[in-house]
């Protein structure tokens, strides 16, 4: 867990909701970076950094900012709350873009003020004054800021107001009875901060300039406008910095927020929730997806076809059958079958032991992937992406698609490597074939002996030479029996072996298919599935993080 969340736990204790929400937003930012628009992610990252920094600073101080337009009496209200003329008052716009800070308590909050970037000459320690005994103890830990006018013609003033509003724990908006409906403050500041209603007060200053009988109606009208801005329930107080009317109520309201130490917590929670809501609008809120087994299987099928696995499997079956027939067939016909080309050798997939075979194993003569196979791979990958990204927001659909094709350039080489390096199990013949071969040669030798014997007898008879006696077995001459039975038995044995050869070659083809598909599955996992799964995991982390951050 990051130092930001560790800071939250240090302040609020283990298991506090805020630390989990901050951790969720931080995870969403990390997972969404590079996938979601930077215009959405960077502000969220800024909130994470700002919240973490605020938590690592003082939890004993509550930063309260007085904001308002020129002439609203903001600086007069600041002086009335502090009890001293610390801020310049007048209709002339301020000449500085820095805020003025007044700190209540023995701790000057220098670390916090440095973080707020308040210059030292604009800082005042309230307890450093001679009226130490008159300081309101309920304001212990208050850091009160008098911000520049938000409607100033100076751009620096606008920037400073916007910066500090984003860093304060409690915002007090000081409005003027004549300009409280001004669209500038409602559109630019109040309405965008609707999620921060719990850390906001609204003060209608110069209430003494309004007839007493209209006070209630005007305050109600301010409340109506705030409700339109999404800020229903925000406290609205009528004050007069000049006469002191309502200032004690304002001081009490601020003191209550300072005493319960909840403003900082509420402000950070509001920042996190608002930022998470904006990210969710861009990221979407569809439930996370996972790649199904069916998706993986269809992808492997398409890549297997593109790699020529069916061609290789058929070559394994035919090659196994040819080699087994050579081993078990009638020696004369088996020798003639050597003239037939070996399917695996033609594909340069024969796994021999000599140097030529080893060189051939480094390359293949597989047919080049045609347009139909390539189109099937692309269609399968696209369908896979469409299936897992259905319902996701467009940024995630785009990132999933890009991830699925990000390593397509390596696909052909990796598939060819699978075909050329996988042990197809067709380089040797079964042991029973070797036994049949020995028997075939025995039968062939018997038939050959009989043929030679009969030839000798026939030659002697032709030359009218004395012929030796011919033994017989149950009335049949032995040479004839050797020739006929040896040839017949060899042919029958070859035919019976073909049945076993057919079964065995199909079994070898199935094993080769399984091994090749396992290799293709590894390629699919590495080049397509893993990148897509990484994007889906990033979406899951973002989705879960934003749900946690929104509370």
Notes on the protein architecture:
This protein has 551 residues and is an alpha/beta fold. The chain folds into three domains: 1-59 and 262-283, no CATH class; 60-260, Rossmann fold (3-Layer(aba) Sandwich), CATH 3.40.50; 293-550, no CATH class. The protein is built from 20 helices and nine strands. The chain has helices spanning 3-12, 17-32, 38-56, 74-82, 110-116, 155-165, 183-190, 215-228, 247-260, 263-283, 293-307, 309-328, 331-337, 343-346, 355-361, 371-389, 394-405, 411-421, 431-462, 478-550; strands spanning 62-68, 100-103, 123-125, 142-146, 170-175, 200-204, 236-238, 472-473, 476-477. Strands 3-2-4-1-5-6-7 form a seven-stranded mixed beta sheet, with helices on both faces. Strand 8 and strand 9 (476-477) form a beta hairpin. Helix 11 runs antiparallel to helix 16 (371-389) and helix 12 runs antiparallel to helix 13. The radius of gyration is 45 Å and the shape is rod-shaped. The model is unreliable at 4-16, 90-95 and 352-366 (pLDDT under 50).
């Amino acid at each position: 867990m990051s130092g930001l969340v560790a800071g939250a736990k240090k302040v609020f204790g283990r298991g506090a909701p805020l630390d989990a929400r901050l951790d969720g937003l931080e995870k969403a930012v990390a997972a969404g970076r590079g996938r979601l628009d930077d215009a959405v992610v960077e502000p969220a990252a800024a909130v994470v950094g700002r919240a973490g920094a605020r938590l690592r600073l003082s939890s004993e101080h509550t930063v309260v900012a007085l904001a308002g337009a020129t002439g609203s009496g903001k600086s007069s209200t600041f002086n009335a709350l502090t009890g001293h003329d610390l801020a310049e008052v007048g209709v002339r716009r301020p000449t500085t873009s820095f805020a003025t800070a007044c700190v209540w308590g023995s701790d000057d909050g220098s670390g916090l003020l440095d973080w707020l970037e308040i210059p030292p000459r604009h800082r005042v320690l309230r307890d450093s004054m001679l009226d130490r005994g008159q300081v309101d103890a309920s304001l212990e830990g208050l850091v009160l800021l008098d911000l520049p006018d938000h409607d100033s013609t100076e751009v620096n003033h606008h920037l400073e107001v916007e910066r500090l509003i984003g860093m304060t724990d409690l915002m007090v908006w000081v409005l003027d009875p004549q300009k409280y409906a001004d669209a500038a403050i409602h559109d630019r500041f109040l309405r965008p901060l609707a999620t921060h209603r719990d850390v906001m007060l609204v003060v209608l200053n110069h209430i003494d300039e309004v007839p007493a009988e209209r006070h209630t109606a005007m305050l109600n009208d301010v409340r109506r406008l705030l409700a339109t801005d999404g800020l229903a329930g925000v406290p609205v107080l009528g004050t007069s910095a000049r006469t002191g009317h309502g200032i004690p109520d304002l001081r009490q309201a601020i003191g209550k927020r300072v005493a319960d130490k909840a403003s900082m917590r509420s402000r950070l929670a509001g920042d996190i929730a608002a930022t998470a809501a904006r990210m969710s609008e861009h990221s979407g809120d569809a439930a996370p997806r996972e790649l199904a087994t069916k998706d993986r299987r269809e992808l492997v099928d398409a890549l297997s076809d593109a790699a020529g696995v069916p061609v290789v499997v058929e070559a394994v079956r035919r090659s196994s059958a040819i080699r087994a027939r050579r081993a078990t067939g009638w020696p004369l016909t088996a020798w003639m079958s050597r003239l037939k080309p070996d399917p695996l050798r033609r594909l340069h997939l024969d796994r021999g032991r000599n140097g030529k075979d080893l060189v051939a194993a480094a390359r293949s003569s597989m047919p080049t992937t045609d347009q139909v196979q390539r189109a099937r791979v692309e269609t399968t990958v696209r369908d896979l992406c469409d299936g897992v990204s259905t319902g996701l927001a467009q940024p995630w659909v785009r990132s999933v698609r890009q991830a699925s094709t990000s390593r397509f350039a390596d696909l052909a080489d990796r598939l060819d490597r699978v075909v050329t390096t996988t042990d197809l199990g067709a380089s040797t013949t079964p042991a029973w074939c070797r036994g049949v071969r020995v028997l075939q040669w025995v039968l062939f030798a018997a038939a050959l002996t009989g043929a030679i014997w009969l030839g000798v007898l026939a030659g002697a008879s032709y030359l009218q030479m004395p012929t030796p006696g011919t033994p017989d077995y149950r009335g049949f001459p032995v040479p004839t029996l050797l020739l006929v039975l040896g040839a017949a038995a060899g042919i029958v044995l070859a035919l019976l072996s073909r049945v076993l050869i057919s079964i065995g070659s199909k079994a070898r083809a199935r094993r080769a298919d399984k091994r090749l598909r396992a290799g293709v599955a590894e390629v699919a996992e590495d080049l397509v599935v893993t990148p897509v799964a990484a994007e889906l995991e990033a979406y899951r982390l973002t989705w879960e993080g934003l749900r946690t951050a929104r509370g």
